[in-house]
Write a structure and sequence with these properties.
Number of strands of chain B: 0
Oligomer: heterodimer
Number of strands of chain A: 4
Structural class of chain A: mainly alpha
Radius of gyration of chain A: 19 Å
Distance between the termini of chain A: 41 Å
Radius of gyration of chain B: 26 Å
Distance between the termini of chain B: 53 Å
Chain lengths: 357, 177
């Protein structure tokens, strides 16, 4: 019965992600980007002037909703457990590299699902890359990889990220002079604030209950043949697909897809980076936000790394456009892969020869 | 809770109230100076200025174009391009002039350069939007170069033309870019 409830929560979260992602486009979010943690991180970074592209500057209420939804449910259900101290700097840079990987593909794993659901066949290379990256990460986990052990921390540590989210919400409403909001480009494409916020809160709340994670679902399947979270991932895809068809957002093909490019090799490699890095730090970008909301300080550090990445992908042009990835983006994807592999190897706890026998 | 805790809490509350008050005051002052939507209005007026300037700058180009003197119009547009290297509008005029002369490949190249320099050309929320015009050319180009690709699959010019077309199609489709 308990297992059934968990499965239900996972499926409900998946359905909310898929439906919410498509509905938010109908309400004004950029096409195929109803929900995209990496794009939205770039938007928030721009709003806070961590980069100066006004077209990508807007405090996305969805991200605030994810964190606060998770926080509210976690505190109400006694799941707000403050812990951290597990290789914080490594997690920070993994967060950074994950965003670079996403920017080279042009989308996080959730957007990858939404793009697939909208008929964008360029996302197939991303799916293969992400899956391969996760499989690779699982090889390291099976081979003894584990970051430093986390420990319980005083509650205040876990409140920082939810408070930052709350502060961003205040900024969104009062628009202080240091917060920039673009009036054109993707920044101008957004659903009404309350619709975005409530969608984010609902998804955040269910994601906290279910533990849904795009990379986690595939990882658990590779690791133990466990399908609970994978069912949520599949539900997200199917619900996005169905609603895209119903709302006329479905456009099958490889070309003429919004914010996409045809450099499939780099898409694959970028998402390998996202896959392996997400497995090594235990969660996709979306899951990091949810965990940050429920008191996981390490996920909070990763979230800050992602925000830092959101700024640098525009300042240093570490991303793709419809013309394909930039040279700088390609180089940083490769450096990210090196970083992830070095960490994976360095943190393997190998059994001694005597112990193996 | 001792006196130090109570003092700290009072100080925190007072500082929080002052901070919120200062932020709210600044927001109110900003709204007083510029009404809500002023940034959008300001944006529009800067668009209006830009369009007015372009209208003056390209007056002769348009005159040549209307008379059917395409070479002269193109020479004039290229002169403007040299004098104003950051302006994207010369590329739009060049694209239109090439199209008038049936040069689809050059038309597409120039539209791509224009969109790369000024994404507002494909942003339907801005007054610079010329997406419908570009879309027609792109559809025509896709048909033409699609056929040519079948006939000459190794032709790099055809492949590059298709790449430019795919780029423009993707930009026209919108999304987070």
């Amino acid at each position: 019965m308990r297992a059934l409830r968990v499965i239900d929560a996972s499926i409900v979260t998946g359905a909310l992600l898929g439906l919410g992602g498509v509905f938010l486009v109908s309400f004004g979010n950029p096409v195929n980007s109803g929900i995209c943690v990496s794009c939205f991180m770039e938007n928030v970074a721009g709003a806070l002037q961590l980069h100066d592209d006004l077209r990508m500057s807007y405090i996305r209420p969805e991200l605030i909703g994810f964190i606060l939804g998770s926080f509210l449910v976690a505190t109400k259900s006694g799941r707000f457990q403050v812990k951290g101290g597990s290789s914080p700097l490594i997690r920070f840079f993994m967060g950074f590299f994950i965003i670079v990987g996403c920017a080279v593909f042009i989308g996080c794993p959730i957007k990858m699902i939404l793009r697939l659901g909208a008929g964008d066949l360029t996302a197939i290379a991303a799916t293969l890359g992400l899956t391969f990256g996760i499989w690779l990460g699982v090889r390291y986990i099976k081979g003894g990889f584990a970051l430093d052990r986390e420990k319980a921390l005083p509650p205040m540590n876990g409140l920082v990220i939810p408070l930052v989210a709350l502060l961003l919400l205040v900024f969104l409403f009062i628009s202080p002079s240091f917060v920039k909001t673009g009036q054109k480009g993707p920044a101008a494409w957004h659903a009404p604030i309350f619709i975005s916020l409530f969608t984010g809160l609902a998804i955040g709340a269910f994601a906290q209950r279910s533990g849904l994670c795009i990379t986690g679902g595939i990882r658990n399947f590779f690791l133990a043949g466990e399908r609970t979270l994978l069912n949520g991932v599949i539900t997200a895809f199917l619900s996005a697909l169905m609603l895209s068809v119903v709302l006329g957002q479905f456009r099958w093909g490889m070309t003429a897809q919004p914010a996409s490019h045809l450099n499939h090799g780099w898409t694959f490699l970028a998402m390998v980076l996202v896959g392996i890095a997400s497995v090594l730090i235990d969660g996709c970008p979306f899951r990091q936000l949810i965990k940050a909301g429920q008191g996981d300080v390490d996920a909070g550090v990763t979230t800050l790394g992602m925000l830092f990445g959101g700024g640098l992908v525009y300042s240093w042009v570490l991303r793709s456009t419809s013309a394909g990835p930039t040279f700088e983006g390609k180089i940083v994807v490769l450096i990210g892969l090196i970083f992830a592999l070095v960490v994976a190897v360095a943190f393997r706890k190998r059994k001694l020869v005597g112990q193996e026998r | 809770m001792d006196w130090l805790d109570r003092l700290s809490i009072a100080a925190i509350a007072a500082i929080a109230v002052i901070t919120i008050g200062m932020l709210a005051n600044q927001a109110l002052m900003q709204r007083g100076e510029e009404n809500p939507g002023e940034e959008a209005k300001g944006g529009k007026s800067s668009y209006a200025l830009q369009m007015e300037e372009d209208n003056k700058l390209f007056k002769e180009v348009r005159a040549f174009q209307e008379q059917g003197h395409y070479q002269e119009a193109m020479a004039q547009a290229k002169d403007i391009m040299k004098s104003y290297p950051k302006k994207s509008m010369p590329y739009v005029y060049l694209a239109r002039l090439h199209f008038k002369q049936g040069e689809l490949r050059e038309t597409i190249i120039n539209y791509r350069l224009a969109v790369e320099m000024e994404p507002d050309y494909v942003d339907e929320r801005t007054p610079l939007f010329i997406g419908e015009e570009i879309k027609q050319i792109v559809e025509e180009g896709r048909e033409k170069f699609g056929r040519e690709k079948v006939l000459k699959p190794e032709d790099s010019q055809v492949r590059n033309a298709l790449k430019d077309i795919y780029y423009l199609q993707s930009r026209l489709a919108g999304g987070c870019e």
